[in-house]
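Re: Re: ligand-bound prediction request (bumping)

Still looking for help on this. To restate: I need the protein modeled with fe (ii) ion bound, output as structure tokens. Inputs repeated here so nobody has to scroll up.
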Amino acid sequence: MQVLNTRGFLIYKEFLGAEAQGALLEDIRGVVRAAPLMVPVTPRGREMSVRMTSAGRVGWVTDRRGYRYEDRHPTGVDWPAIPERVLEIWRALSGVERLPDSCLINFYGDGARMGMHQDKDEGDFSMPVVSVSLGDAALFRMGSDARGGKTESLWLSSGDVVVMGGAARLHHHGVDRIRFGSSPLLPKGGRINLTLRVVDC
Ligand code: SIN
Ligand code: FE2
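Reply:
Sorry for the wait, this slipped through. Here it is.
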């Protein structure tokens, strides 16, 4: 495993081996069966290209009413618990005692992307964000706390984990594109990103 530091983003390349990735994928499939993936809509009414659901005490949602954390999936079911294997990654890399309240699950199909943004709907920015990549490779763009400043990009592969802590906690980031079909993990292609956060609100 190699650890890169790009603009304060710590990137643990190949943190998860093939077997761990497969086991994690099965856990995520279980979550998605209980809390189906949804089409997120921005407050301005635009459909996002990723499909989303969550595990944990609260889940991040967006629709016409805004970005927020909710206690339940829109269908009314409780969010499933965060799988133990996911918590193990947090314990290994977060550097904090507290456990995350939320695990956002983003699915990127062919052509999906994520615009540059900050993760700032949480109450305590001293808590890091831990982000796990599974499946197809993604071009991850990293900036600073300023909008529209200089950025650097790097390909994230299946099994890579990014930790956004310290100054990087509020740095802008996004996914420009994925290399659809580049990983054998998901038989029909695509990418899954897990974003672990302490929400505290
Ligand atoms: C995000 O920050 O919202 C997603 C990052 C990723 O998909 O790697
Ligand atoms: Fe993010």
